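**Protein record**
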Amino acid sequence: MATTSGIGSVLDVNGIVTSLMNVEKAPLTKVATQKTAYQSQISAYGTLKSALSTFQTSVNALSSLSKFNAQSVTSSNTSVLTATSNGSATVGSYDISVSQLAKSQKLSVGGFSSVSDVVGTGSLTISFGTFTPEVADPFTASSFTPNAAKTDLNITIDSSNNTLAGVRDAINAAGASVTATIVNDGTTNRLVITSKDTGEVNSLKIAVADGDGNNLDASGLSKLAYDPQATAGNGKNLSVLQDAKNSILKIDGIDIVKSSNSITDAIEGVTLNLVGLTSGSALNLSVASNQDAIKTSVTSFVDAFNKLDTTLRNLTKFDETGQANGALLGDSTARSVINQIRAVMNTAIANGSSINSLTQIGVTFQRDGKLSLDSTKFASAVSSNFNDIASLFAATARATDPQVSFVSSTSKTKEGTYAISVTQLGSTLLNAQGTINGATATGSSTTLRGALGDDSEGLTINVAGGALGARGTVSFSQGYAAKLSTLLDSLLSDDGILAARTDGINSSIKRLDTQTERITSRLTAIEDRYRAQYARLDVLLTSMSSTSTFLTQQIAALNAK
């Protein structure tokens, strides 16, 4: 036998102990194998959570009505008018002519050789309103009607800011709906005061409290006085560079006058942006359904699900050789995730529409578990049921009263039909009051919001007008994207099944770590015992070998005599 334990050793103690310890380490190897499997599962659940989060991002984008209320607005003359739609406009066309653009008022005063020239001290009060000039009628005098939506701007001018540049900076520092600039026209510096907002309702009136005691003359700070009803040099001391003007247009022959060039309330659901004037015939504005945008949204939904499906299949796949099984093969939690998602997608939506399932718009499951989109069937569904496509995916509500409309909902809003009662109509100055589902709703302007704790919680509706009392019902439903979003919130939450499963696996890993420490400690003691035992045996055998050698030598010596 080889002797590797040292000079005179009979036994290979290291080899013997190593062989024995390899047998003793079998439980430790088993624990390590289990820990590696659990760690693979933790990694797999991380991949699953990431895939679910990515899918949720796509789903959330489809849970908004705006994704499906897609419309295209086309102007035949974009140098005069452009437009956009919020998706709720009536499909059709309009003849529009623009005869005047809205403008803001500009006032000016010159006579300053330098921006450091002193203007004067005192205070300025800038008001906004509508100036109506006197007409050739003894019973119609001029007037200035204040704009109730704006408050007067009060500016103090003292020795620290009484120069031309100082007055300009003081006006701009006020941060109100007026700006001031200094323009050098080649011979003099002019202070130009401009209303930030267009329209006749934003005409300017400037009152001065002059430090020299005369508030109306063209001397000192009163150079900046401007009362459109006064006379030059006596309170009307600024020159008008540009009058405040309203935009004037015709829509299908109807006269429209607005204070802005961006008009949101002429054609419901459409924002008109005026940029020029028509010459000759009116331009045409057409509003059409944007089917391509709807298809893009649905295609994104199909692609997002298929990516998730691929990830789930890879994590749970079975390989006949056993060499490439998924880390979550046979995992009940992973199966539950798959089944819950498919259950939502295979259940018809209670949206009160004839289009209430994915198959009706050409979205179907294939044999391989993937989704596919039949473009022909989809186009037919959109053409015949365009307004119902949104309710198939997003959270929507249908009101029986034409003056009651759905605004929004939250994740706490439950599907159902809720009675609406109005006790006070709302406005910009007065909040609406009433009940939804018999519970007192929260009023804000013209909207009512479902009460906390009620099934209608978070359901917000708009009441445009009508009578007080019972106002019919609102039927709320969640489309596929909305339902999936709620489900994914639950799956990915801190107290969801995925968190519970990973917490359980981590607990098992900690238990195995403790078991590993215990086994390792025991193995150390066993190895020490083995080494001590075989070391003693080695000493004994070495001694016996020496005795045997000695006796052999003695016998040989006796025989030689």
Notes: The two ends are 34 Å apart (CA to CA).
